[in-house]
Amino acid sequence: MHLRPIEQTQGANLYEQVANRIQTLIAEGTLQPGDRLPSVRKVHQQMSVSISTALEAYRLLEDRGLIGAKPQSGYFVRSVKSPPEPDRSSPAQKACRVDTSLVFQVNSMVRDPDIIQLGAAVPGMDLLPLSTLNRLMGQVMRHNPALAHSYSPPPGCIEFRRAIARRLLDADCAVTPDQIVATHGATEAVYLSLRATTQPGDTVAISSPSYYGLLEALATLHLRALELPTHPREGICLDALETALKQKKISACALVSNFSNPLGTCMSNENKQALVELLAEYQIPLIEDDVYGDLSFNGDRPKAIKAFDRHGLVLYCASYSKVLSPGLRVGWAVPGCYQAQVERLKLTVNMSTSPGSQLAIAAFLANGGYDRHVRNLRRAYEQQMLQMIQAICNYFPEETKVTRPTGGHVLWVELDPHFDTMELFQKAGQHKISISPGIMFSPSRSYGNCFRLNCGLPWSPKVEQAMETLGRLIREG
Predict the structure, then answer these.
(1) What angle (nearest 5°) sits at the alpha carbon of residue 386, between those of residues 382 and 389?
(2) What are the residue boundaries of the HTH gntR-type domain, all occurrences included (predicted)?
(3) Tens of pLDDT along 240-265?
(4) pTM
């Protein structure tokens, strides 16, 4: 096998780029478990790097758990076990009210700096371009002092909306700045979209399991949830949705479209188009949350469901909380034919989204560094997810099932049917470890034997120790 020379690019050490090239060959199957890797000297010659760089790259791949060294024989691709995936969910498909009392208890652990955050779906701060954003925020305040401290009524700053319109082309969405409404994160975008399309007491069709932030919004608005069967790779069952549309009064549908939280589902383009056409037939609006869309491991940004919308019935919601900064609280909605309602509601709920934050994000998107940052972030999340799955193989019972997302940074873990993950949540908390119990993700409080894991934190001995402790607690039952 011949390795092409590597040209160093800004933003990553040369040994990391060598390691990432070889990791890609392993992920694509070019290098199989048990294969002998090229010698350090051959890497030095073929990739035009120093011997010390080649050696450091192999050490990094060892740390990632992808290769191992054998005395007198060189380096080999490790055999990484792949745990089975969960099956398609089978909820009762009965509309019910939503109780989110557990969410506050779980999220309260986020405030404890000593807790290892394997529960909340938060990115590691070390992975985000905080220094650049801080510098841009300072520039915004100096150059636009009046604007940065003023109200920015709907639809928001034009500079921000222009930048978002350009980025949405990557999701195959051709929209104008005037069709975009700046919001206080994706959570507010989803909340406003639900309010614009429903009335208290209405029923909203959702995936099962479903992101608890959506369930909180449904509860706040006194809406009922109809859980639909969902496959970890294929998404919601369209046949079940069609049956529900025929038999029940459904006012809206709400989904995380790409690398969903908590399953990591990314619907195929065929299913996205079929979903849009099915809902259009019944004139049912779809609230699409695409907050993870930029985090595809293979580098190809998947299309948004909105890309297939021809009737303005898809209300697209997103933010940069998972990619740039959770704290700036900048998101947006493309509400389609519900734009007037969303703008009025935005004005009523909190008047405006911070103009300083909008302008800082717009400046970051304009300076050319976003694509490079996202490439590095994707690699980091993929590596951390692989290490988390390997730890599950090493420390959890053999019958454990785990999703295998191709993007994002969350995993869904399914244990023995009789296992109680609420009890695991309590025990793990005593060891300063947080997880998100499965019942948080279901209005009917299903999935008591499941939990969500956050892979957004850089791998470290502390994280591995937490995974080992979780495995021990699970085995002790």
Answers:
(1) 140
(2) 12-80
(3) 999 999 998 999 999 999 999 999 99
(4) 0.84
